[in-house]
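BUG: 3D viewer hangs when loading the predicted structure for this chain

Environment: internal workstation, default settings.
Expected: structure renders.
Actual: progress bar stalls at 90%.

Input used:
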Amino acid sequence: MNEKEIITSWNEAVELYKSNPDDHASIRQARDQLKTVISSYPKQGVSKLCYNVAILSRLLGDNATDLEYLNLCLGKDQHNAIAYYQRGLVQYSMKRYADSAKDFQQCVDSMRQATLIDYAQLGLRCKLYQHEVIYNEAACHLKLGNRKNCMYALLEVKKLIDKDTTKVLHTLDIQTPIESVRNGGNTLEVIVAGEGKLYTPPVSKLNNLAKKNYLGKAKVVSSLQTGDTFSGFVGPKLKALDRVKKVTACIVGAILC
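Structure tokens produced before the viewer hung:
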């Protein structure tokens, strides 16, 4: 696949899902199409597409594939905070609470002290809030019976909310779960963000899709040597084509990261 084919296939898969978000057959078809693109570029950066496959798999109730592709996603990008967050959610749903807590902690570390990451500019309509990630970590500790760590995490969430001058974080009622845990409560519901949201191809690439001719048209070059009947690419032409292919491969990798 060249860049044009990858962008086209990626966009078709996303649009197919968006047009039928509740139809399992359409979701499965969109997922299979993205997996085909990924398999075409196994050595390139395909973290966004791996992420999409994971999210679509979750909608199908396929936790094993969800987890597999989030692992692949993080293998391509070890600082992908939203991928750690999503893996924490699927681990939690599989009752792997210790692993889930580790993923939420890794997510916080990957946010690098940012209280909010808005992924819209990267093509994903999702906002990741630090206080919600820490809240989910608290829910894991409670499931594990570690009430001390649970309370510590809840108090960290309260500090973040109290420091927020914009009042954006105040939509989360933190006092009620704090009192519940203090009084022996054993239930905290995890906060789910980005459910059903997929990475879309860069708008600039979509706009230029019909305009670009990535490799150009091949031209036959006849030999100028006397007695040589060969017609085709020679010397410099072959080297130039090879350079174009290498540049195209680099561009593809950058887009899919």
